């Protein structure tokens, strides 16, 4: 077929008028700014403004009744720091966060290793592990409040059934309890009293022991930590599982060919390869747990005697319930340096991951 | 060093896919055997079963006469080079090469000596402290080879080790692997889908497709006496031409399909009308594409003419091409297997309108 026979490509006779605004979003700078704008507005209104407002409040004597910003220097900070409850809360914040996160990281690596295997009913296991994360934290905490109830705790019921806590007729009978055991191995302090609850059932008086998880300083502390662990475990597990499944199959095969045992494989190959992503999961967990107010607010309200108090809830009690805005702001700002450090480390880790 | 033998080796996957179908292989001591086949032919599965990375559905694997069918890879004293090299990204080159020795519990000084020896074999001594990501593709491949070699395995398995290299590097790496294998004389199984690689490197080649073994033989045997039409069309570039006849399928290599005039008058031969559709000049050769009549209408065939032959050939012209009788292969129409020469009717060629 010669060139002359080929059908002609129809050409449009009248050229359209150029409308340059149609291509405005092809400009990457403009496109980038447009896409970022909603997020920037959101952050300015809901993060930056309250943050700087809090700094301003903390140097003033503002209350809910009188929000005028009269500068009083470091007076508010001085008052806040001297309060022993603040000191407990600050200490608890670190204690809860670090203990919870050590447990979360360790357990989630183990769980992720299990989930990376093939076994029957894996989907169910996976679903159950994810459940705490999709449950609203407030709802979850209310559930735990019931689980740890002073009188009707199902955990206590189970402990009584298996014989750790006794169900006895009449008082005075010594029963070796879980508290005794915990006292013996030093987890619970010696002077923690075991509570005996009695009630009349017909003519008989039935007494039963309760752990009173949330009423005793030690067990209340462990309860708060346990709920934090329960809550953070799913996210951490899923992140680490993603890291595990990202290890190429060839690497696992090479390990098998090189004749390396499972323990050496874990410590010398698997762990170093998932270390960056585990670090990111850990830092996320630190921020979540450090700033969480709901678990303590619902479970203990800082009780007994402010032993489980934490900074965010203490700031709420002081600033909103106690109407002392300036003190509340100052208390909350004490979390800032820690969060800043964690955020910087997280971002550095993430950016370094992108490069390699 | 040891022999490797598979007896009626079978691999089924859960979904009833037969990946490897009753393979009998006997690999001699120190031999370089190439498993050749297109993707999905089961060659890599077969290699992975020999390595112990894949469970065997049925059949046996012997190494040096020992039944290793159900033993883990580390009990088989073999090593493997992966297509991706599978270097440990967080370890230095030294750490990578030393890793299999560490697993064997060798003390540090001995490890160091061995690593240096293996590194010097492949000229990578100066990179020992680097991480794999700081190396080029060719250097990574050498590290993988050094790691595979360092614990002196009795069987050496390579799974498409050259496919991640560029064409130039591939040629030199091919040469290097072959020479080094000759020197250490370790039984080697090499998987590839590249027939040029297979022809160039293998002492023997095993051609597989759809999990079945089609033929095992030296490169010359495969080329001269292909067992069936699959082997015939998988080897050679361009591959063998096949023509469907009433009695059988006839086949001839492109380099045996030449203009009638350049073949000696008295040589017994078959003549074909050949309409040229396209000519490709490739320096040393001319590839002439065209059509020949056959039982099932017209068949496309290729002729490969060395540049020494300067017969003018133009597109859209009809020529007479010929194949020497001794170069003609015959295949069964139903099974595709090669058969002894049988007479076939040339009528279709005589009254053809091409």
Please characterize this protein's 3D structure:
The complex is a heterodimer of chains A (356) and B (354). Chain A has helices at 28-58, 75-82, 84-115, 122-134, 137-147, 154-162, 178-184, 217-245, 249-257, 262-291, 294-299, 311-321, 325-333, 336-355; strands at 167-169, 195-201, 204-210. With 356 residues, chain A is mostly helical. Among the domains of chain A are: 87-135 and 216-322 and 341-355, MetI-like (MetI-like fold), CATH 1.10.3720.10; 149-210, no CATH class. Chain A has a 3-stranded antiparallel beta sheet. The longest helix of chain A is centred in the first third of the chain and has 32 residues, at 84-115. Chain B is an alpha+beta fold and 354 residues long. Chain B has 2 domains: 4-224, 3-Layer(aba) Sandwich (Rossmann fold); 238-350, OB fold (Dihydrolipoamide Acetyltransferase, E2P) (Beta Barrel). Chain B has helices at residues 43-51, 93-103, 108-121, 137-149, 167-184, 195-201, 219-224, 229-234, 347-350; strands at 4-12, 18-27, 32-36, 58-63, 66-67, 78-81, 155-159, 187-192, 204-209, 212-217, 241-244, 249-252, 258-259, 269-282, 285-294, 297-306, 318-324, 329-331, 338-339. A 6-stranded mixed beta sheet of chain B has the order 6-7-8-3-9-10, sandwiched between helices. Chain B has a 5-stranded antiparallel beta sheet with strand order 13-17-14-15-16. The radius of gyration of chain B is 24 Å and the shape is elongated. The chains are: A mainly alpha (356), B alpha+beta (354). The interface between A and B is medium-sized, with 17 and 26 residues.
Low-confidence stretches of chain B: none
CATH superfamily of the domain at 87-135 and 216-322 and 341-355 in chain A: MetI-like
Tell me the distance between the termini of chain A: 55 Å
CATH class of the domain at 87-135 and 216-322 and 341-355 in chain A: Mainly Alpha
Going by CATH, what is the homologous superfamily of the largest domain in chain B? P-loop containing nucleotide triphosphate hydrolases
* Overall residue-averaged pLDDT value of chain B: 90
**Contiguous runs where pLDDT drops below 50 for at least 5 residues of chain A:** 170-175
The number of strands of chain B is 19
Task: Report the order of strands and helices of chain A.
Answer: HHHHHHEHEEHHHHHHH
Number of domains of chain B: 2
- Largest beta sheet: strand ordering of chain B: 6-7-8-3-9-10
What's the main sheet of chain B like? 6 strands, mixed
Q: What is the overall shape of chain A?
A: extended
The DSSP helix count of chain A reads 14
């Amino acid at each position: 077929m010669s060139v002359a026979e080929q059908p002609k490509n129809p050409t449009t006779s009248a050229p359209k008028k150029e409308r340059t605004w149609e291509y405005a979003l092809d400009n990457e700078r403009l496109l980038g700014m447009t896409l970022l704008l909603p997020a920037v507005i959101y952050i300015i209104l809901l993060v930056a403004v309250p943050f700087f407002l809090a700094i301003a409040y903390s140097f003033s004597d503002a209350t809910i009744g009188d929000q005028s910003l009269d500068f009083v220097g470091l007076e508010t900070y001085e008052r806040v720091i001297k309060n022993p409850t603040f000191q407990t809360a600050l200490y608890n914040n670190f204690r809860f966060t670090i203990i919870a996160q050590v447990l979360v990281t360790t357990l989630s690596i183990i769980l992720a290793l299990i989930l990376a295997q093939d076994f029957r009913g894996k989907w169910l296991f996976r679903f159950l592990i994810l459940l705490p994360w999709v449950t609203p934290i407030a709802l979850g905490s209310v559930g735990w409040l019931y689980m740890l109830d002073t009188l009707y705790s199902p955990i206590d019921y189970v402990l009584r059934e298996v014989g750790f806590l006794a169900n006895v007729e009449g008082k005075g009978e010594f029963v070796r309890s879980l508290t005794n055991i915990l006292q013996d191995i030093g987890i619970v302090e010696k002077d923690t009293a075991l509570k005996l609850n009695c009630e009349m059932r017909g003519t008989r008086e039935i007494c039963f022991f309760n752990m009173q998880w949330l009423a005793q300083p030690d067990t209340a502390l462990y309860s708060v930590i346990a709920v934090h662990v329960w809550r953070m475990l799913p996210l951490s597990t899923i992140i680490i599982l993603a890291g595990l499944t990202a290890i190429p199959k060839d690497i696992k095969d090479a390990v098998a060919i090189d004749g390396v045992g499972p323990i050496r494989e874990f410590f010398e190959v698997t762990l170093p390869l998932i270390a960056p992503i585990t670090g990111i999961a850990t830092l996320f967990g630190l921020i979540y747990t450090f700033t969480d107010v709901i678990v303590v607010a619902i479970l203990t309200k800082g009780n007994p005697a402010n032993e489980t108090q934490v900074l965010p809830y203490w700031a709420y009690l002081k600033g909103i319930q106690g109407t002392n805005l300036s003190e509340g702001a100052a208390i909350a700002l004490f979390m800032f340096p820690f969060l800043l450090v964690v955020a910087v480390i997280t971002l550095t880790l993430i950016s370094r991951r992108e490069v390699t | 060093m040891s022999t490797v033998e598979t007896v009626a080796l079978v691999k089924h996957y859960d979904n009833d896919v037969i990946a490897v179908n009753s393979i009998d292989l006997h690999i001699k001591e120190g031999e370089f055997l190439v498993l050749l086949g297109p993707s999905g032919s089961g060659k890599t599965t077969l290699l992975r079963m020999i390595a112990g990375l894949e469970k065997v559905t049925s059949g046996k694997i012997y190494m040096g006469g020992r039944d290793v069918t159900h033993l883990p890879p580390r009990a088989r004293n073999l090593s493997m080079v992966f297509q991706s090299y599978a270097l440990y990204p967080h370890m230095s080159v030294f750490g990578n090469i030393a890793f299999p020795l560490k697993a064997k519990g060798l003390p540090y000084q001995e490890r160091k000596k061995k690593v240096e020896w293996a590194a010097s074999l492949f000229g990578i001594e100066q990179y020992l402290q680097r991480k794999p990501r700081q190396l080029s593709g060719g250097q990574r491949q050498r590290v993988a080879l050094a790691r595979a070699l360092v614990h002196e395995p009795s069987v050496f398995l390579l799974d498409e080790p050259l496919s991640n290299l560029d064409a130039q590097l591939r040629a030199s790496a091919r040469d290097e692997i072959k020479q080094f294998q000759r020197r250490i004389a370790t039984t080697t199984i090499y998987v590839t889908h590249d027939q040029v690689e297979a022809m160039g490197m293998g002492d023997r080649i095993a051609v597989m497709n759809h999990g079945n073994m089609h033929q095992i033989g030296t490169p010359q045997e495969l080329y001269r006496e292909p067992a069936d039409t699959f082997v015939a069309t998988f080897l050679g570039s361009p591959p063998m031409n096949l023509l469907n006849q009433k009695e059988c399928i006839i086949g001839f290599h492109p380099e045996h399909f030449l203009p009638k005039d350049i073949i000696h008058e008295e040589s017994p031969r078959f003549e074909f009308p050949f309409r040229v559709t396209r000519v490709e000049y490739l320096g040393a050769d001319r590839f002439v594409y065209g059509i020949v009549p056959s039982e099932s209408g017209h068949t496309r065939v290729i002729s490969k003419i060395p540049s020494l032959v300067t017969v003018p050939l133009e597109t859209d012209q009809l020529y007479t091409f010929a194949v020497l009788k001794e170069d003609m292969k015959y295949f069964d129409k139903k099974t595709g297997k090669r058969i002894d020469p049988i007479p076939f009717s040339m009528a279709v060629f005589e009254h053809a309108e091409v």
